[in-house]
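For reproducibility, we list the full input for the alpha-D-galactopyranose complex.
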Amino acid sequence: MAAWRRPQAGDLLAEARRAFREEFGAEPELAVSAPGRVNLIGEHTDYNQGLVLPMALDLVTVLVGSPRADGLVSLLTTSEDADEPRRLQFPLPTAQRSLEPGTPHWANYVKGVIQHYPDSGAVTARAQVCQRAEHSFAGVPCGIMDQLIALLAQKGHALLIDCRSLETSLVPLLDPKLAVLITNSNVRHSLGSSEYPLRRRQCEEVARALGKDSLREVQLEELEAGRELVSKEGFQRARHVVGEIRRTAQAAAALNRGDYKAFGRLMVESHNSLRDDYEVSCPELDQLVQAALSVPGVYGSRMTGGGFGGCTVTLLEASATAQAMQHIQEQYNGTATFYLSQAADGAKVLHW
Ligand code: GLA
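The corresponding predicted structure, in tokenized form, follows.
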């Protein structure tokens, strides 16, 4: 059966404060939240210096804390998904002694941010610090999309990000007649962890073979003309990226003028390209997209994120959501989980 999940930031904050009080015997002095995100279009383009169009979700992570004077960091998570131990303590890094990734895994990203944080200042530098933490502590050579949308998102808007210049522009996403439905396939194929860095390498190799800094600098015609210089697979990977960057610009323009049909068509093209040229989809994601596309009122649907499992994103008329969820679940061989979210704010300080 389909399930609804919508943890409220307020509930999470209350839970975090309670856990803090129990552990440390005092009220925390600071509380912050950071959103999850869904990428509407522009997949596997960020590490190619391309364009992406994500929005932040009203599903958030909440963190509370207080400064301490003894040079130690104590961490505690209440996440049920976290590996054991759920609490740990370590000294703050110094010039002589760096933090290292290890176990428990849930703490690695936090440690990475603590390790790299002294290098940050401006907002985009903070995003880069978090990206570096993901590279060196979580082991994923990701692009900059997730970190920038988490920092810069504004309620009621998607964010067009140029991952080369780091320029961003807000794209209104406020129409009450429109909904964004996220469907979790609840599968994650282990392939993902090795294929992501491989895709990144393949893209960089094609750019190099064509004498360019990145695939952002490559036009489709140049890629066609340079076909002999790259492998068949490399050509397909690059064709996805070059086409996807173009689609993302077109999709942002379509959303700006309220042309949801055009946006939906571009989403479907994106999915097909990710499936056939970039080869990061999987049967479960394809099935979810197919099912969504057969529902009246659906404009478009595609896999979202790195691929090999995870979620699809569907743009549809708000009035069609109940029917869409029911139909998708009926058609899907697995168990789907649905999230309906407005475009939400980025990371912020919480007050109580
Ligand atoms: C993952 C990465 C992002 C991006 C997407 C694919 O989510 O963290 O940086 O590369 O995959 O678009």
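Residues 39, 43-44, 46-47, 142-143, 145-146, 305-306 surround alpha-D-galactopyranose (CB under 6 Å). Residues 1-5 have pLDDT under 50 and may be disordered. Both points were considered when choosing residues for closer inspection.
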